[in-house]
Amino acid sequence: MIPTTNLGYARLLALAVPAALLGGAYFGQYAFGLYPCEMCWWQRYPHFAALGLAALAYAVPAQSRILVALAAMGIVASGLIGAYHAGVEYHWWQGLTACTAPAATGAGGSALDAILDAPLVRCDQVQWQLFGISLAGYNFFISSVAGLAIFRLLAKGGRAEG
Predict the structure, then answer these.
(1) What is the domain extent for residue 136?
(2) Deepest in the core among 2, 45, 72, 124, taking most CB within 10 A?
């Protein structure tokens, strides 16, 4: 259903943006071997929360405005983490961690083998970029713009779009 109010557009945006960004992250991870570093995971967590809150906004329409606002906060938080991560990648500042990927246990394999076979992904190295912008940089841009757009739509109120 196509939204007809600012709240409807905000709710749709709050659901679509984290779904698209998480989908893209997992596609890159599993289709192209772009394994996430620790800071990449940090960027995903607020999107998971935003996705859940936006879905809940559809299930509980009476609380939709507050749930969408909370989802927008999560989207903006992910964007801010992306900005910090991009700065670490471009060596503008030091990162906080050693940035190694979490070990994943394979089906039927030992935990030690999974740890030893896990790829070492550093937060301070760009794995992929387009036009000189890393994935963290794109997350910063997309998440920040989307989060601010959601807040703008919420501020306009529930008026019908013309």
Answers:
(1) 6-97+110-156
(2) 72
Query: What does 14-31 look like in DSSP terms, one character per residue?
Result: HHHHHHHHHHHHHHHHHH
CB 140, CB 79: distance < 8 Å? yes
> Looking at residue 159, what is its pLDDT?
43
- CATH number where 130 lies: 1.20.1550
Higher-confidence residue of 90 and 49: namely: 49
Is the residue at 161 inside a domain? no
> Would you say 73 and 14 are in contact if contact means Cβ atoms under 8 Å apart?
no
pLDDT tens for 113-162 read: 666 666 567 767 777 777 877 888 899 999 999 999 999 999 987 544 32
Count of Cβ atoms closer than 10 Å to residue 33 Cβ: 9
In the chain, DSSP assigns E strands to 129-130, 133-134
Chain-centroid distance, C-alpha 101: 17
